[in-house]
Amino acid sequence: MTHMTLILADDHTVVRHGLRTLLEAEPDFTVVGEASDGQQVLDLVERLKPTVAIIDLMMPGLNGLEVVNQISQRVPQTRTLVLSMYSSEAYIVAALRNGAGGYVLKSDSAVVLTEAVRAVATGRRYLCPSLSERAIDVYAQKATPAAFDLFETLTLREREIFQLVAEGNTNTRIGHLLSISPRTVEVHRTHVMQKLELKSQADWIRCALRRGILPMEE
How far apart (Å, rounded) are the C-alpha atoms in residues 218 and 209? Predict the structure, then answer.
């Protein structure tokens, strides 16, 4: 039996505790770390290089989609499994596009989750049974990266600020969270608007919604 190491990423402590209890009941699973925000996940994955990182979509700092993208680039040997409450096709396509190996809903059973972990760990794609099985190929086809994505021109710090601004934080609040000055935040905001060709806060919000950084209506 191949042993697998796991990292759990969710900003709710009770959810992480429940997942740990469920997963460590399996003899071939060991949870080696937990994270409550996106940057913590990246730090843990780079340090521990687990077999699978189980990641919630909506987390502070860096959202789950961005975390998945960064892991696929920085630590490709770690597979990622998105565990989310959102079942819309847009989120699933975005997760696959960013490099996720699987997508499971929080409403699914423990059996589905453990099946998903084992599938993703071996390099297979897994979508939970509540999603149409024949849709896997469709999703995979849609997940083919576009020729050029302006968002890819943003630095990691600019991506952090993009999310924090979209969530409604002021420059002062963002500066406090990231340990930088409000003036530096403003400089980054200006760069983001130039790179993404945004003209207003409304454009910023629409962009965040399209990318799944803010919750979309189901």
Answer: 12
